[in-house]
Design a protein that fits this description.
By secondary structure, the chain is an alpha+beta fold. Helix content is 35%, strand content 22%. The strands form four sheets. Strands 2-1-10-5-6 form a five-stranded mixed sheet. Strands 3, 4, 7, 8 and 9 form a five-stranded antiparallel sheet that branches. Strands 12-19-18-14-15 form a five-stranded mixed sheet, with no helix packed on it. A hairpin with a 2-residue loop joins strand 7 and strand 8. Helix 1 runs antiparallel to helix 6. The longest helix has 41 residues. The termini are far apart.
Length: 530
């Protein structure tokens, strides 16, 4: 083997050694996380820390680009970065074996710091998986690079402190050791994954065993004509599988309903409560059709959906705890909801207790909540964007003030109070559609939760506004379908839509991005008519 090929091979093997060491570190960390908790595994902890530190504008971009796959993209990105760094440490180890191994330990310290710094951290114990994995990875890297250079060292070494050229026996020893470590790591990682997954199996069994009680207050019967059932038009009720999901959880929490507890405490709480799932199930349940909207929804975006929810009236629970709204002398004006993943959301107490159907939801479209949507219990307040009202995987409600505490999104410069803005969307025709001249059905949805939609208008190419036909009005907290028959003529045309709510307010033409309190502006589509 000539010298150039020998150097290239040595570098390739060293980089491979770094990758094997990194793989071992992650596998051991996954296994150790079983004894701590799954959320303490390095990828989850670092990913959560990345999400926490990412600017709101970047998060908004990620949601627009990747939708509900944004967490998967982040995890793959983290693994990709770790792979590059691991290979780089392997290459560094050609000259500085001890320093490269120490570098692995440093990454373990970073992972441990990320785990203990998360809002839902259980303490310093959350650093153990990252540190254990780093120790294992450092040892593997040191040993593998030693095997790679052992034969060459026996033959006299090389200059400049670089590990000597690998001989055939050295390569063989390295590859055997690397293969053994990879096999062990795969087994350890799969074992850890299966043990962590067993808790999820218990949670799934607890969900499957739930039989939701009949509501004491059933949803009002929907009027005929509430769903126009037009091709391409969003259905009035969103199927659960199609309902949007936007949150910061890298892995969906899977909780056992039998072990779930909700604590209610704080300022003005005369009777602190701790409730379990059975406590909620025995209470009077209300069933309501409610449309939810994410504040990250761009004009015309998909992050809005309507479902039939089942839950306990939140105001009743708060009154039982002795809470009064500020208008009645209550000390707290903010209700802080905390999720098991550490997320915090702040809701105006006055709004929660003003008579609207705010609830602790346990059911969605006739079934227990899906895990992705907050099982076993989530909060829901009609008329407010989700980031201030719709805490999933709920475990705590604290009464406090807006002056005393900033929740997760408020710390990131989003508005404290966020009523949903009146909005409308064109569902059909789709953008850049090619249409035939003649009568074209233009249709979509409009929403102004807790206010209701009074009128929807469409215009073509900046012309006069034409009033659309509205579907029958369902509950005031749901969206409303609309349609307009357009006498389309050949050419390229731009369609705009706007809605007016029942307070008389019409959508503004001023375009605004979602941050800090929701997007605004008229949705438009460009189509070609032939």
């Amino acid at each position: 083997m000539n010298e150039r090929n020998g150097v290239r091979e040595r570098r390739i093997l060293a980089a491979l050694g770094g990758l094997v060491a990194g793989y071992a570190a992650l596998a051991v960390a996954e296994l150790v996380s079983v004894a701590v908790r799954p959320a303490a595994s390095p990828v989850t902890a670092v990913g959560g820390a990345v999400i926490d530190q990412t600017p709101a504008a970047v998060k908004d971009w990620a949601i627009r680009q990747f939708g509900t796959n944004d967490k998967l993209v982040l995890q793959l990105g983290i693994l990709g970065v770790l792979a590059v760094l691991a290979a780089a440490l392997g290459l560094l180890g050609l000259r500085y074996r001890r320093r490269a191994s120490a570098g692995v330990l440093i990454f373990g310290i970073v992972g441990g710091a990320a785990a203990t710094g998360r809002p839902d951290a259980a303490g310093v114990v959350d650093a153990v998986p990252s540190l254990a994995g780093a120790v294992a990875g450092a040892a593997v890297l040191y040993v593998l690079l030693g095997r790679l250079s052992a034969e060459g060292e026996a033959q006299g070494g090389s200059a400049a402190g670089e590990a000597p050229e690998a001989t055939a026996p050295g390569r063989r020893d390295f590859l055997v050791a690397a293969g053994a470590v990879t096999a062990f790591s795969t087994g350890a990682g799969l074992w850890g994954w299966r043990l962590n997954a067993s808790a999820a199996v218990d949670a799934e069994a607890s969900r499957a065993a739930i039989r939701l009680p009949a509501p004491g207050s059933p949803a009002p019967r929907l009027p005929r004509g509430v769903d126009l059932k037009l091709p391409g038009l969003t259905p009035y009720r969103t199927p659960t599988r199609d309902f949007y999901r936007v949150d910061t959880a890298l892995t969906v929490p899977r909780l056992d309903a039998g072990k779930w507890r909700l604590r209610i405490h704080g300022q003005g709480v005369r009777n602190p409560l701790t409730l379990d799932f059975d406590d909620l199930s025995r209470r009077r349940l209300i069933e309501r059709d409610i449309t939810m909207t994410c504040v990250s929804n761009e004009v015309g975006g998909p992050y809005v959906g309507s479902a039939r929810w089942l839950g306990v009236p939140l105001a009743e629970v708060l009154r039982e705890a002795g809470v009064r709204p500020p208008s009645q002398g209550g000390r707290a004006d903010q209700l802080v909801a905390r999720s098991v993943d550490g997320m915090t959301l702040g809701t105006p107490v006055e709004t929660v207790m003003d008579g609207r159907d705010a609830m602790l939801a346990v059911g969605m479209n006739g079934e227990p909540l899906p895990f992705e949507h907050g099982f076993p219990v989530r909060m829901l307040v009609p008329g407010l964007y989700g980031y201030v009202s719709a805490c999933k995987w709920l475990q705590e409600l604290e009464l406090t003030t807006f002056a005393a505490y900033d929740t997760y999104w408020v710390e990131r410069k989003w508005a404290r109070k966020a009523p949903i803005k009146t909005a409308s969307r064109i569902d059909t025709p789709r953008p850049f559609a090619s249409l035939k001249a003649g009568t074209v059905v233009v249709a979509g949805v409009a929403w102004a939760q807790h206010k209701g939609i009074e009128r929807v208008e469409v215009r073509v190419d900046g012309g006069g506004w034409q009033e659309a036909q509205l579907a029958a009005q369902g509950p005031v907290d749901t969206w409303r379908q609309w349609m307009w028959q357009w006498p389309a003529k050949p050419g390229t045309h731009t369609l705009h839509v706007r809605a007016t709510d029942r307070t008389g307010a019409t959508q503004t033409t001023a375009r605004a991005r979602p941050i800090p309190d929701g997007a605004s502006g008229h949705h438009s589509v460009v189509v070609t008519v032939t």
